[in-house]
Amino acid sequence: MTTRLKCLIGFYSIILPLQPKVIPNAMCGICQKGKEANKRGRPEALIHCSQCDNSGHPSCLDMSAELVCVIQTYRWQCMECKTCTVCRQPHHEDEMMFCDKCDRGFHTFCVGMDQIPTGLWVCEVCDKDFTTPKKKGVKAQKKSKSAQK
Ligand SMILES: [Zn+2]
Ligand SMILES: [Zn+2]
Ligand SMILES: [Zn+2]
Ligand SMILES: [Zn+2]
């Protein structure tokens, strides 16, 4: 019986970090309200930092529904805990930029850039997901060639 329980605990400790963190009675650090109401007075689930007790409404943090889906697939860190995805260091805050698709932090010098880009920026992790398969391009080329003839 006890060995079974131990196995079960070991099993859950492996799975748990991938599960979304659930903190009862958590409060948004921006509007100081719970999941019952956001700054617009509407119910909204809170997101939680994997590193500290900071929580927030995605709307208060200016996060889109898409971004919220993505940050729940990895150990998201709040602005105060954010570290660089490449070197894992939190320093050089003024040279850290954030991916517009996953909110991961990156130092400009860790990805070989001179300065923080002014517009939208997507990290290489997301960029890989969004590049279209090359096979399609090959097919389209063949078609256009036969059309020319
Ligand atoms: Zn809020
Ligand atoms: Zn945090
Ligand atoms: Zn770095
Ligand atoms: Zn990204």
From TrEMBL:
This is PHD finger protein 10. Belongs to the SAYP family. Residues 25-84, 81-129 form the PHD-type domain. Keywords: Metal-binding, Neurogenesis, Nucleus, Repeat, Transcription, Transcription regulation, Zinc, Zinc-finger. It comes from Ameca splendens. It is found in: Nucleus. InterPro entries: PHF10_PHD_finger_1 (IPR038045), Zinc_finger_PHD-type_CS (IPR019786), Znf_FYVE_PHD (IPR011011), Znf_PHD (IPR001965), Znf_PHD-finger (IPR019787), Znf_RING/FYVE/PHD (IPR013083). The gene is PHF10_1. Its main location: nucleus. The keyword Transferase does not apply.
